[in-house]
């Protein structure tokens, strides 16, 4: 049956079978296959999965949990379970339609999605995969033939992002565990970003997790509950071996990992998780965390490099890479906010107001460390100021468009 598979696919299917035998499992499942794919950077399935850059820790938790529920019978000899058989049936049909002579591990991912197995398909979709996306990847890569090694090479930017993946702090582990229990109590088969936000605010407001330098007392648990409640129940009812972390939560952790890297930390903390959630569910997160992404991030940066007496803000030792940036060429500024700063002052100060909410105005500045200008904006608008960096060329073009 494996004759048409690439050498890599044959090797990994055999390895998955050996793993199942070692665990004395009664059958070989799609989860066994996914486990070995994710350990093998030389297979095309690994590339397809990693190009989505899901949170590896979530994936490992999900697979470990599912594999712990596979039946054990202690008997020799292992067969494919029904879901795995459907996957292989789909793979052979798809390979004929693609006119490929070889079958890669990427084809097996496509088969898992098209077979719509109730355990595996939701899991892959939660990792950011879709039928169309995987099919496009296979079509672009072409016929793997007997060897899929060349088509498995990761793009450089994806490889860099994977290398930046970091450990979790104990606080984050607590939030993960609490959000899982919250999903179960809501009879949801998915742990979503909204579960995570509610868990973060709940635990931070009770001093269980640390969000310093943010002020946990400013977190509004009641508002968060009100804003996230409509999302907490999913269409898939809870099942012990079907629980998955949704794609938005994976993206939140990707953002949190990048923040951790830029802050020079070794592990993701609750603080970076808060920033990640502000990126993926901004409306709900803003309602309970006491500010938007830019205002909270700037508050954190402000704490990293306090100026000495007589020192100017621009001479602080805060790394420039920590300052959030924006390209104004594709940004549609809110006109009612733009006019908060008259054109003459905007050009003099090299700044433009972009958005305002919750008594905070977000402004783009060429020099985001110019505290004199920031103080003048606060005095002019009567609002707190969140700053992001913009190139002078972009800012001048934005002046022409918006004034």
Polypeptide structure, described:
The chain has helices at 7-22, 30-37, 44-50, 56-67, 82-98, 105-114, 120-126, 131-141, 156-163, 170-185, 193-205, 221-228, 247-262, 270-280, 282-289, 293-304, 335-338, 343-349, 371-381, 392-402; strands at residues 27-28, 79-80, 167-168, 190-191, 244-245, 267-268, 351-357, 360-365, 384-389. The protein is mainly alpha-helical and 403 residues long. It has three domains: 7-154, Clp, N-terminal domain (Double Clp-N motif); 167-290, Clp, N-terminal domain (Double Clp-N motif); 325-402, GMP Synthetase, Chain A, domain 3. Strand 8 (360-365), helix 19 and strand 9 (384-389) form a beta-alpha-beta unit. The chain is elongated, with a radius of gyration of 25 Å. The chain starts with 6 loop residues before the first helix and ends with a helix. Residues 305-321 have low confidence and may be disordered.
List the helices and strands and how they pair.
Layout: H1 7-22, E1 27-28, H2 30-37, H3 44-50, H4 56-67, E2 79-80, H5 82-98, H6 105-114, H7 120-126, H8 131-141, H9 156-163, E3 167-168, H10 170-185, E4 190-191, H11 193-205, H12 221-228, E5 244-245, H13 247-262, E6 267-268, H14 270-280, H15 282-289, H16 293-304, H17 335-338, H18 343-349, E7 351-357, E8 360-365, H19 371-381, E9 384-389, H20 392-402
Parallel strand pairs: 1-2, 3-6, 4-5, 8-9
Antiparallel strand pairs: 7-8
Helix pairs in contact: 1-2, 2-4, 3-6, 5-6, 6-7, 6-8, 10-11, 11-12, 11-14, 12-15, 13-14, 14-15
